[in-house]
Write a structure and sequence with these properties.
Blueprint (H helix, E strand, L loop, with lengths): L1 E5 L6 H12 L3 E3 H11 L2 H10 L7 H12 L8 E4 L5 H12 L7 E6 L2 H10 E4 L5 E3 L18 E2 L6 H15 L1 H9 L2 E5 L4 H12 L1
Parallel strand pairs: 1-3, 1-4, 2-3, 4-8
Antiparallel strand pairs: 5-6, 5-7
The chain binds BIS(adenosine)-5'-pentaphosphate and magnesium ion.
Magnesium ion (MG) binds next to helix 1.
């Protein structure tokens, strides 16, 4: 199964993509996580991405598209994958459709996790992220067992640099401008599925599983 997760920053794409990956035994590929891993490792790609991410801007398509297409051509992706945070622009979506079509493949679903802007800022200020393994927590809705420490790998949890309220507002504006048009793009492709992302995490996941089967 090949699917993409759509939704505003903080809608819960990462939260749900991890559960989907575990249930359907497919890799979870988050372009944001790949960029953050590169920033942590101090690579050239990481340095380039950081300057955009810290301002709430998108990393340019010429950097992002090649990186993602390389990743999905690796062996572990042969049985499918769940993409989280890609595509984020119409050119990214078109490149993905084209690359898949050239191998006689196509996406099965685009799942839009719908959450209004009002809910997003509160969610983001409570989020804590593990830069070691990519796990995500929330200080109220999904707290780690030990405060400030990742349950999975034991690393320290951080507030992401781009989760400051003013950067979140910028990311929301960029989302509405550049990413929201993908909802119509995938509706036209006939693979759009919508879920109400304001429900609790378990209920959102149940709704997704009903769609994916
Ligand atoms: P990325 O890392 O993808 O960030 P994002 O899209 O802004 O999304 P988030 O990761 O912030 O939110 P999420 O939807 O995954 O929510 P989560 O599950 O964590 O990208 C970061 C940056 O990288 C971009 O701004 C851009 O610069 C760059 N980038 C990445 N991909 C790119 C691309 N393709 N092209 C160009 N640039 C790119 O949940 C949020 C919080 O809410 C958590 O604390 C969680 O515990 C909590 N929560 C989740 N679900 C619920 C629920 N149902 N109820 C209550 N709380 C919940
Ligand atoms: Mg995420």
């Amino acid at each position: 199964m090949k699917l993409v997760m759509l939704g505003a920053p903080g809608a819960g794409k990462g939260t749900q993509a991890k559960r989907i990956a575990a249930k359907y035994q497919i890799p979870h590929i988050s372009t944001g996580d790949i960029f953050r891993a590169n920033i942590k490792a101090g690579t050239e790609l990481g340095m380039k991405a950081k300057s955009y991410m810290d301002q709430g801007q998108l990393v340019p398509d010429e950097v992002t598209i090649g990186m993602l297409l390389d990743r999905i051509s690796q062996d572990d992706c042969a049985g499918g994958y769940v993409l989280d945070g890609f595509p984020r622009t119409i050119p990214q979506a078109e490149s993905l459709t084209k690359a898949l079509a050239s191998r006689g493949e196509k996406l099965d679903y685009a799942v839009n996790v719908d959450v209004p802007d009002e809910n997003i800022v509160t969610r983001m200020s409570g989020r804590r992220a593990c830069l070691g393994c990519g796990a995500t927590y929330h200080i109220v809705y999904n707290a780690p067992k030990k405060e400030g420490i990742c349950d999975v790998c034991g690393e320290k949890l951080v507030l992401r640099d781009d989760d400051k309220p003013e950067t979140v507002q910028k990311r929301l504006a960029v989302y509405h401008d550049q990413t929201q048009p993908l909802i119509d793009y995938y509706k036209q492709e006939g693979i759009l599925a919508e879920v109400d992302g304001t429900q609790d995490m378990d209920k959102v996941f149940q709704d997704i599983v009903k769609i994916l089967g």
